[in-house]
Design the sequence.
């Protein structure tokens, strides 16, 4: 048989499986505890093949269909269900939070803090997305701006920015040219959460989320696991199967960055926020991919009434299985903090377990969740310190800046966020979501309060 004529769309696979997807699937299966030895010989043959040959592509597709149902190895250390009922049954004891006694003005300020903090943190990390930590350091040192303490600048000497891969053609994310928060998937999904509840109400379903995506979000505005799920929707593969069918990115960070609105709209109710996050995440992710979104949404709900960062983090952990890889990883970060470990040593510890040069590690839920936890703890409720600490380590910089900024933004409230970081936003958010192309952040916060569970 001849070569396949189908092409891959930019940024992620659409129809054709590649050797990269095979390698990611192998690593993903091993991390999930699946018995990959049952398909190892077949993998070894496929990884040597030319997958643009139609016969080999069909073999690769059949291989992915086998890995879905691989059993776990004996003695696997974790229990990681994907159904909501099983997740709830596997949670640790719940944390008692202060009763919510916030009036509408305070709720509005905290919701606005979330929107502003998310936008600011995302904008800080956006120029560095995809850049390695050592290139970020090299770029900033060339400008005498290390360590990071403000938005990235275009003023690097010579052609350094292009040499290191910084996207200088999109100047709206550099401090000289910022005029609002430019479109980014991290903020597209926050607007999407609002629009879903506005359209379907608080009883929205995973199928509602799927339909909203297909109707309102262009295909190429979603990436990795989301794009694969989108492809599956178009083939009439619906949730929850859409999350697992030929999806090696099923535990990547995509769901974690979709959490925020579900936390904003459930003040002081982490359980409700986590359930909303599950409904959203389960269309494209499984296991720790789902838990990442539940953890962040629950943290944000708790952030309305908690002044202590560690309590907020634990409120998030209380909504996911106690014996999962994400919970173990975040507990490890908390232990480092409580032991007095330095920020630099905590980041170095992450690097002993995750390799930012590998796409899987760079974009995984857990590696980036660890960075968010570090930024929140070592940031010590200082907004600038927190968002900068989430970007300096590299990995998925705009996602981590957005999430840490969002959580602290709700804790502090919009009025307490530094003008240095907020004024450049000009109260403006641009998105790729239909009906929300250019919107006021204040308006989005107002709509959030109107949609809150009372």
Sequence:
């Amino acid at each position: 048989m001849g070569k396949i004529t189908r092409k891959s769309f930019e940024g992620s696979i659409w129809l054709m499986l590649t050797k990269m997807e095979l390698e990611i699937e192998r690593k993903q299966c091993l991390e999930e505890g699946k018995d990959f030895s049952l398909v190892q010989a077949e993998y070894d043959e496929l990884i040597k093949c030319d997958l643009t040959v139609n016969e080999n592509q069909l073999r690769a597709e059949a291989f992915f269909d086998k890995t879905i149902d691989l059993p776990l190895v004996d003695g696997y250390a974790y229990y990681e269900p994907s159904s909501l009922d099983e997740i709830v049954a596997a949670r640790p004891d719940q944390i008692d939070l202060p009763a919510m006694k916030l009036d509408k003005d305070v709720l509005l300020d905290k919701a606005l803090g979330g929107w502003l903090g998310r936008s600011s943190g995302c904008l800080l990390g956006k120029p560095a997305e995809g850049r390695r930590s050592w290139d970020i350091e090299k770029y900033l040192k060339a400008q005498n701006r290390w360590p990071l303490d403000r938005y990235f600048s275009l003023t690097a000497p010579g052609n350094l920015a292009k040499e290191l891969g910084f996207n200088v053609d999109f100047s709206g994310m550099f401090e000289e040219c910022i005029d609002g928060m430019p479109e980014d998937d991290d903020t597209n999904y926050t607007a999407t959460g609002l629009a879903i509840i506005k359209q379907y109400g608080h009883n929205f379903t995973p199928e509602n989320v799927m339909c909203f995506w297909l109707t309102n979000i262009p295909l190429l505005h979603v990436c990795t696991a989301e794009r694969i799920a989108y492809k599956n929707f178009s083939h009439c593969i619906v949730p929850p199967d859409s999350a697992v069918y030929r999806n090696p990115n099923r535990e990547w960070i995509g769901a974690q960055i979709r959490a925020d609105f579900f936390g904003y709209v459930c003040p002081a109710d982490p359980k409700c926020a986590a359930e909303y996050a599950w409904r959203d995440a389960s269309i494209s992710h499984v296991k720790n991919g789902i838990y990442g979104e539940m953890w962040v949404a629950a943290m944000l709900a708790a952030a309305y009434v908690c002044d202590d960062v560690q309590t907020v983090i634990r409120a998030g952990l209380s909504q996911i299985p106690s014996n999962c890889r994400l919970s173990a990883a975040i507990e490890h970060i908390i232990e480092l903090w409580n032991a007095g470990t330095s920020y630099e040593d905590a980041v170095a510890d992450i690097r002993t377990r995750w390799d930012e040069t590998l796409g899987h590690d760079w974009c995984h839920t857990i590696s980036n969740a660890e960075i968010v936890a570090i930024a929140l703890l070592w940031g010590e409720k200082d907004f600038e310190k927190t968002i900068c600490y989430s970007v300096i380590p590299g990995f998925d910089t705009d996602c981590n800046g957005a999430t840490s900024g969002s959580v602290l933004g709700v804790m502090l409230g919009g009025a307490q966020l530094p003008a240095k970081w907020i004024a450049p936003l000009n109260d403006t958010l641009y998105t790729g979501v239909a009906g929300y192309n250019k919107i006021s952040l204040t308006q989005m916060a107002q709509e959030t309060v109107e949609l809150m569970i009372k």
